[in-house]
């Protein structure tokens, strides 16, 4: 069950339902996970400063079990996600940062238990 959190100083109007569906689809494909298990949150319009400027930017956090646990995997994920974000949002690569978090099954609760027991 991957968790995708996008934080940005871009306005709400940049993040249509269509964009959310495309981002979900893209990250699911990149991570090799089914779309039905994805959790996606977008937080637009935040006060943000990156690299000394408040120009439009995005921080994408990707938390998942078993697919974000090595530098090699995350390098590949990054290479596949960056073009989507820069293309869809009209940002340059220096205005996008992706953070990867490796989760263990016992760290994710669902249906009154944890993923270790599902």
TrEMBL record:
Q: Which UniProt keywords apply?
A: Acetylation, Cytoplasm, Lyase, Melanin biosynthesis
User: Is Nuclease there in the keyword field?
Assistant: no
Supply the EC number(s).
4.1.1.84
Q: Name one GO molecular function term.
A: D-dopachrome decarboxylase activity
Q: Which GO terms describe its biological process?
A: melanin biosynthetic process
Return the InterPro entries for the record: Macrophage_inhib_fac, Tautomerase/MIF_sf
Q: Where in the cell is it found?
A: Cytoplasm
Signal sequence span per UniProt? none
Highest taxon of source: Eukaryota
The record's annotation in SUPFAM superfamilies points to: Tautomerase/MIF (SSF55331)
Q: Looking at its record, which EC class is this enzyme?
A: lyase
UniProt similarity note: Belongs to the MIF family.
**Purpose:** Tautomerization of D-dopachrome with decarboxylation to give 5,6-dihydroxyindole (DHI).
Q: Which PANTHER family match?
A: D-DOPACHROME DECARBOXYLASE
- From the Swiss-Prot or TrEMBL record, give the protein name: D-dopachrome decarboxylase
């Amino acid at each position: 069950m991957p968790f995708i959190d996008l934080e940005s100083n871009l306005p709400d109007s940049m993040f249509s339902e269509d964009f959310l569906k495309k981002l979900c689809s893209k990250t699911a494909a990149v991570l090799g996970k089914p779309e039905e298990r994805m959790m996606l949150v977008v937080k637009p319009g935040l006060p943000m400063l990156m690299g000394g400027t408040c120009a439009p930017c995005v921080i994408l956090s990707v938390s998942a079990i078993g697919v974000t646990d090595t530098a090699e995997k995350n390098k590949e994920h990054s290479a596949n996600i960056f073009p989507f974000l820069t293309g869809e949002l009209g940002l340059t690569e220096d205005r996008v940062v992706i953070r990867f978090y490796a989760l263990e099954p016992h760290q994710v609760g669902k249906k009154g238990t944890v993923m270790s027991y599902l």
